[in-house]
């Protein structure tokens, strides 16, 4: 049994068996028998939807349990009974831990992909602009996302506890004026798909992290990180490159432009 990234202490194997980054063509019965990971792809992300299809999918992936019932109830309560729930956009089920702070401003947009996990104590504050989290991304406990412009996290990312994403910073240019009166700078934060972000890492305004990258624990990312890179430190620097995948592809790929041997030009 693997510990759940939501802190609920259960396996999340069932959730992980329908790969969102894999080919999305409907799987035949023969293909499902040959490769169990293909099972449910058509019902998870294809055009066939509805209560009966969802029930069959849940049964196939051993999700008809008291724990998943609790998760469904928690999702329904937040969706139907909270102002943030009325404003967020999603195309399917979400797995939400306890003690969340979800704030969505009147002009803001929060878009959550299907099967996103949000760990206990996480804070998503979409003051203005947009926060986007791609399908099957896992947020650990006590993660903070704060946006005035745009924070986007791609598909199937793994974000460890206490990571932070923030797309603004305070102006401190005038020493004679209190910092809180000097306004803020805003720049988009974009994280690609299949990115692993370590414990307590901080992704700051204007940063783009490429697909398949790894950010080490306690890193402070102040500049772009290329796809397939491993970056650590404060400020984060690339220490090595991972092999680029030959077949794995993601929609809306993120590859920061003009990245030279010593970093962004």
Which second-level CATH architecture of the domain at 66-242 applies? 3 Solenoid
Sequence of strands across the biggest β-sheet: 2-5-8-11-16-19-21-22
Helical stretch tally: 5
Helical coverage, percent range: 10-25%
Query: What is the H level of CATH, i.e. the homologous superfamily of the domain at 66-242?
Result: Hexapeptide repeat proteins
Short description:
With 265 residues, the protein is of the alpha/beta class. The chain contains five helices and 24 strands.
Present the secondary structure layout:
Blueprint lengths: L28 H6 L6 H5 L5 H10 L5 H16 L1 H5 L1 E2 L4 E2 L4 E4 L4 E4 L4 E2 L4 E4 L3 E4 L4 E2 L4 E4 L2 E4 L4 E2 L4 E3 L1 E3 L13 E3 L2 E3 L4 E2 L4 E2 L4 E2 L4 E2 L4 E2 L7 E4 L4 E5 L17 E2 L2 E2 L1
Q: Can you characterise this structure?
A:
With 265 residues, this protein is an alpha/beta fold. 16% of the residues lie in helices and 26% in strands. It has a domain at 66-242: UDP N-Acetylglucosamine Acyltransferase, domain 1 (3 Solenoid), CATH 2.160.10.10. It has helices at residues 29-34, 41-45, 51-60, 66-81, 83-87; strands spanning 89-90, 95-96, 101-104, 109-112, 117-118, 123-126, 130-133, 138-139, 144-147, 150-153, 158-159, 164-166, 168-170, 184-186, 189-191, 196-197, 202-203, 208-209, 214-215, 220-221, 229-232, 237-241, 259-260, 263-264. A hairpin with a 2-residue loop joins β23 (259-260) and β24 (263-264). Mean pLDDT is 82; it is low at 1-47 and 260-265.
């Amino acid at each position: 049994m693997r510990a759940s990234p939501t802190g609920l202490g259960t396996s999340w194997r069932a959730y992980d068996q329908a790969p969102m980054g894999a080919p999305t063509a409907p799987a035949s019965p023969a293909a499902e028998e040959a490769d169990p990971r293909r099972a449910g792809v058509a019902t998870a992300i294809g055009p066939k939807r509805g209560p009966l299809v969802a029930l069959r999918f849940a049964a196939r992936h051993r999700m008809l349990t008291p724990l998943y019932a609790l998760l469904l109830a928690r999702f329904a309560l937040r969706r139907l009974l909270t102002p943030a729930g009325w404003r967020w956009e999603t195309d399917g089920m979400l797995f939400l831990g306890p003690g969340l702070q979800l704030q969505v401003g009147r002009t803001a947009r929060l878009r959550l992909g299907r099967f996103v996990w949000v760990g206990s104590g996480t804070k998503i504050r979409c003051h203005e602009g947009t926060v986007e989290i791609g399908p099957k991304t896992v947020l650990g406990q006590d993660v903070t996302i704060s946006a005035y412009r745009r924070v986007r996290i791609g598909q199937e990312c793994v974000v460890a506890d206490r990571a932070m994403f923030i797309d603004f910073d305070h102006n401190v240019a005038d020493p004679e004026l209190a910092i809180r009166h000097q306004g803020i700078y805003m720049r988009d934060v974009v994280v690609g798909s299949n990115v692993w972000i370590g414990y307590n890492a901080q992704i700051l305004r204007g940063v783009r992290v490429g697909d398949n990258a790894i950010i080490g624990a306690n890193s402070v990312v102040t500049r772009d990180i290329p796809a397939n890179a491993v970056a650590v430190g404060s400020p984060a620097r690339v220490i090595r490159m991972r092999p680029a995948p030959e077949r794995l592809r993601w929609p809306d790929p993120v590859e920061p432009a003009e990245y030279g041997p010593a970093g962004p030009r």
